[in-house]
Design goal:
Number of domains: 1
Radius of gyration: 16 Å
Helix content: 40-55%
Structural class: alpha+beta
Number of strands: 6
Order of helices and strands: HHEHHEEHHEHHEEHH
Largest sheet: 3 strands, antiparallel
Oligomer: single chain
Distance between the termini: 52 Å
Strand order of the largest sheet: 1-3-2
Strand content: 5-15%
Shape: globular
C-alpha cells in the first residue's frame, strides 16, 4: 500500500505562487493544463478522471471537466489508495466535491491579486480556462446565482462564490429540473 510523500497544501501554494506558474496553472484546471502540470498525456488525465483516481478533485460542468489543482496534486502525490483520503471527501448524496471556503481562500491568497475577489466575466473565463461566451452562457442559464450581479452594462462576480457554485452545487441537469418545477 502506497503512503505518498506527505505533501501539504502550504507547499503547493508556495510553489505555485511563482510568477511563471500563476498564469499557467491557476487553482482551476482543464484536463489539458492538468496534464501539462503533471507532465503526463491528456489521455492519462481523462483515464484518471474516469477511473475515479481524481475523485473529489474534479467536477463535470456540461461538456467541460474542471479540476481543483490543489486536490489533484494531493491525490497524485499522497494518493488515496489506502482507506484515508488526503482531504475530506464529499458525503454520498451531497452535491459537488465539498470544497471548503478555507481551501478556496488559501488557493487564491498566495497569487498576489492575479485573480481578484471581484471578477469580470473575462477574469472568470481566464480562471476557469473557458471562453468568455461560455461564462456568459452559464450566467444566462443561472448557474452563477448568488455569485454574480449586473450593474448597468457590466457583470460582476464574487470569485469565491462563483468557485463554490461551480464545484459544490448540484448537477446542472438536476438543478435545471428543480428550477423548472418551481416555475
Amino acid at each position: 500500500m502506497r503512503q505518498g510523500i506527505g505533501l501539504d497544501t502550504s507547499e503547493i501554494h508556495i510553489t505555485f505562487a511563482a510568477a511563471e506558474l500563476v498564469d499557467r496553472f491557476p487553482p482551476v484546471l482543464s484536463p489539458q493544463s492538468c496534464a501539462d502540470m503533471l507532465g503526463t498525456s491528456v489521455k492519462t488525465v481523462y483515464c484518471w478522471l474516469e477511473s475515479g483516481r481524481l475523485y473529489g478533485a474534479h467536477r463535470r460542468r456540461g461538456k467541460r471537466q474542471l479540476i481543483w489543482r490543489d486536490r489533484a496534486i494531493l491525490l497524485v502525490f499522497n494518493g488515496a489508495d489506502g482507506k484515508k483520503s488526503p482531504f475530506l471527501l464529499p458525503r454520498t448524496g451531497t452535491p459537488g466535491i465539498s470544497l471548503t471556503e478555507q481551501e478556496i481562500n488559501k488557493a487564491f491568497a498566495s497569487l498576489n491579486g492575479t485573480y481578484p475577489p471581484i471578477a469580470s466575466p473575462e477574469h472568470m473565463a481566464k480562471l476557469l480556462g473557458l471562453n468568455r461566451s461560455t461564462v456568459y452562457f452559464w450566467l444566462q442559464q443561472g448557474h452563477f446565482a448568488g455569485a454574480a450581479t449586473k450593474r448597468g452594462k457590466r457583470q460582476f462576480f464574487w470569485r469565491n462564490r462563483a468557485i463554490n457554485a461551480i464545484f459544490n452545487s448540484p448537477e446542472w441537469s438536476d438543478w435545471n429540473e428543480s428550477r423548472e418545477s418551481k416555475t
